[in-house]
Amino acid sequence: DGGITQSPKYLFRKEGQNVTLSCEQNLNHDAMYWYRQDPGQGLRLIYYSQIVNDFQKGDIAEGYSVSREKKESFPLTVTSAQKNPTAFYLCATSDIDEQFFGPGTRLTVL
Amino acid sequence: GESVGLHLPTLSVQEGDNSIINCAYSNSASDYFIWYKQESGKGPQFIIDIRSNMDKRQGQRVTVLLNKTVKHLSLQIAATQPGDSAVYFCAENRGGGADGLTFGKGTHLIIQP
Fold first, then answer.
1. Which phi and psi angles does B84 have, rounded to 5°?
2. pLDDT tens, position by position, B77-103
3. Which of A1, A41, A50 lies at the smallest CB-CB distance from B43?
4. Alpha-carbon separation of residue A30 from A34, A54, A71, A81, B76 (angstroms)
5. Would residue A50 be called left, alpha or beta, if left means φ above 0 and alpha means ψ between -120 and 50 degrees?
6. Which bin fits B68, alpha (ψ -120 to 50), beta or left (φ > 0)?
7. Are A103 and B42 within 8 A, CB to CB?
């Protein structure tokens, strides 16, 4: 997992509530990413940021929002507009091409 | 749809045998490919990568082969060990630069004693 921290490891949320997942890195990488993984599936890109104060939508951005106010931090908010938010969420950073992943946060909607 | 995939969902091999995990991609413009290993409940770990100007790259007990003609990628693991049991994903860069990766669905490698 290197220098990427995701918290919390497990998160429970009631339907209709927004929740924010934390991702912090000390690798000094410019680019950061959020992926979602469903059981038995590969990772799908939600949002990414190539530099501070800038971010781009990935393939499944609807119902999610992000911010990138600091190089070290890239929090992801799962809003009530996300219809099926239960999943494993992975944050990554990259140095040129290779991506390094955090340990993940498992979100369950009750 | 996904541009990386086409794989066996589960591959079972005997301990000590060699394993070959396959992946196909559809984006001819992809120029960078990575294999990741993911253990249950953890984030993916980098195994090996290859650029499109190469056909083969070797690491410790692992080899990646790239066939650009048929857009096929494979991961070979030599002398598999119990610790190799995991899900293996291939991934390709989405458009160059830092635009993120596109992942296949993965292959679950099971090592039989």
1. -80, -10
2. 999 999 999 999 999 987 666 788 899
3. A1
4. 14, 11, 7, 29, 32
5. alpha
6. alpha
7. yes
